Q: What sequence folds into this?
């Protein structure tokens, strides 16, 4: 069995475990709502809009939006179409718990954008970062529960998101680029 096949088999085993151990009415109700917060980076764009309204957090708002733009470029324009991995719900449509997305699975854009935002917010403020990281993890888990991503999609989305967020944060601190964020 090729490596991709072994990863996918392991992914399906984890998804099956999640389905068996966590399925309940509460999760069926909550996970679509938590997942919705990650649609198009909605919750993070809303946070950036609120921060932009205050002079003291305006720069942080711009860094956050810049990070989300980097995420779209890396995840949605480059990786998803290059890797072209079908979603678990494309392979087992009866397992989907929400409307089946049409795009590819790898990496999870919801998770990547959430961890970009969480890592930038954590760099700026410890407690804001803790809250954002918890929300990012819940958004990532919701994608598994809803059967629209494989665990490896979510893990790689979290890693790439964290690294991208940290890189954007440090780029924003560079004197040569500071004019962008003022």
A:
């Amino acid at each position: 069995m090729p490596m991709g096949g072994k990863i996918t088999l392991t992914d399906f085993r984890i998804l099956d475990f999640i389905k068996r151990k966590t399925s309940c009415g509460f999760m069926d109700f909550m996970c679509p709502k938590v997942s919705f917060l990650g649609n198009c980076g909605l919750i993070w764009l809303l946070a950036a809009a609120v921060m932009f309204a205050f002079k003291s957090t305006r720069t942080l708002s711009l860094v956050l939006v810049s990070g989300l733009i980097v995420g779209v470029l890396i995840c949605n324009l480059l990786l998803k179409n290059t890797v072209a991995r079908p979603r678990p719900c494309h392979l087992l449509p009866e397992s989907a718990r929400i409307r089946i997305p049409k795009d590819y699975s790898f990496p999870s854009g919801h998770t990547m954008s959430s961890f970009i935002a969480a890592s930038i917010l954590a760099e700026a403020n410890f407690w804001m970062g803790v809250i954002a990281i918890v929300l990012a993890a819940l958004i990532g888990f919701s994608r598994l529960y809803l059967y629209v991503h494989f665990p490896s999609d979510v893990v790689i989305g979290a890693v790439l998101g964290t690294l991208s967020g940290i890189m954007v944060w440090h780029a924003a601190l560079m004197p040569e680029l500071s004019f962008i964020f003022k």
Helices lie at 3-22, 25-37, 42-52, 58-83, 88-91, 109-124, 126-145, 151-173. The chain has a mean pLDDT of 91. The chain has eight helices and no strands. The first helix runs from residue 3 to 22.
